[in-house]
Amino acid sequence: MSKSIRVENEAEELVALQALETYRALQHAVKTAPHGRGLATVEAVVHDKGFEHLRRMYESALADHPEAPKKGGCSLGCACGRKSSFRCATPKHLLTTVGGIVIPRRYYACRGCGGKRTPWDEWAGIHALAVTPHARKVIVTVSCAWSFDRASGKLKEICHMNVSDDTIERVCQHEGEEARRWLRGNEKTVESFATAPGEPVLQ
């Protein structure tokens, strides 16, 4: 029995083909897994194929943002009152909870004041650390249990995150500073936090 699936573009077609590929790999694993190792064999496929499938889907969806490169140039308004013109497409390397992805985005510069913009970065909320918000949470959580160098190996094992111990340390320092600013920003917050029952829990 076969049914057709209507897709809107090449990106959706790729996602559908990847999902089918992953499912067929799971079926094969179920049929060929050795006795006593069934779930371990099938989960290995989920871990490898599933993460790769999600990573490609994530990358493809983000690349479809309006500020991803498209044919033809354009301009944006600049704070100085003049126009920032499109100069080139530059890649953004990001660490996510399903691995590393690369997103092309448009780079603008103003001839009047020399100001530079990458609107995709502004939309995404990514600044100095090229690590997504959820990936930062995962990194900090794992680092609470292991040293930075051991955490690097555990993150690779658990969720295919290739991240050095130096990057882990920078992420933890960044999140610690953010938490410190949050605590100092409001006296009522500090008081409520100090008197709340139980242990602090990272969200």
Describe the 3D structure:
Helix 1 runs antiparallel to helix 2 (38-63), helix 4 packs across helix 5 (148-159) and helix 5 (148-159) packs across helix 6. The chain has a four-stranded antiparallel β-sheet. The protein has seven helices and four strands. The chain has 203 residues and is α+β, with helices and mostly antiparallel strands. The relative contact order is 0.09. Strand 3 (99-110) and strand 4 (116-117) form a beta hairpin. It starts with 9 loop residues before the first helix and ends in an 8-residue tail after the last helix. It is 53% helix and 15% strand. The model has no long low-confidence stretch (mean pLDDT 85).
Radius of gyration, taken over Cα atoms and rounded to an integer in Å: 22 Å
Beginning-to-end CA distance, first to last residue: 46 Å
What is the number of strand segments?
4
Spatial strand arrangement across the major sheet:
1-2-3-4
Percentage of residues in helical conformation: 40-55%
- The class by helix and strand makeup works out as alpha+beta
Order of helices and strands: HHEEEEHHHHH
What is the molecular shape? flat
Low-pLDDT sequence parts: none
Q: Kindly state the mean pLDDT as a whole number?
A: 85
Total of DSSP H or I helical runs spanning 4+ residues: 7
Main sheet specs: 4 strands, antiparallel
Strand content: 15-25%
